[in-house]
Amino acid sequence: MTQTVAIILGNDFEDIELTSPKEAIEEAGYNTVIIGSEAGEEVVGKHGTKAKVDVDIGSAEPSDYSALLIPGGFSPDHLRGDVEGRYGTFAKAFIKEDDPIFAICHGPQVLIDTDDLNGRTLTAVLNVRKDLENAGAHVKDESVVVDKNLVTSRTPDDLDDFNKAIVDTLKNNEK
């Protein structure tokens, strides 16, 4: 059975932080599904890349997916603005089950809403690191930080390392 990676996404995502990991995941033989506010909706990245939402967050079941990818840009901030907190709840299920989570740049912002970062080690873009520390995380300034099945990265400059860590983690978690 092929594993499927959920990608939570809203408008103004950092284009390459979606396209590069998604391509690496698919080239390694895994499926991807984009989850957003409304199935069929088109979301647009900061630089014009368009992505179609496959599944709406209201009907997405974390147990249907083996891992979670959270691209950066302004998308994570938009996702955190969901009044029902559905994206944080969705991500929390992956933390609870120790299923892989991959978050880059501003992506780790969504993880703050899980209330499960206390004692975890991760990285992110500079301007969200203090927020992560305030949520109880240990923050490092490294291209990729792997804490169990939580894989985080800083910026598009780190995508080669991030993508390798994603594929390695997926292979290590095959069920």
Automatic annotation (TrEMBL):
Domain DJ-1/PfpI residues, every copy: 4-168
CDD domains: GATase1_PfpI_like
Pfam family, one: DJ-1_PfpI
Entry-linked PROSITE patterns: PEPTIDASE_C56_PFPI
Family: Belongs to the peptidase C56 family.
UniProt cross-references to PANTHER family, sorted A to Z: DJ-1 PROTEIN, DJ-1_THIJ_PFPI FAMILY PROTEIN
Identification of the protein by name: General stress protein
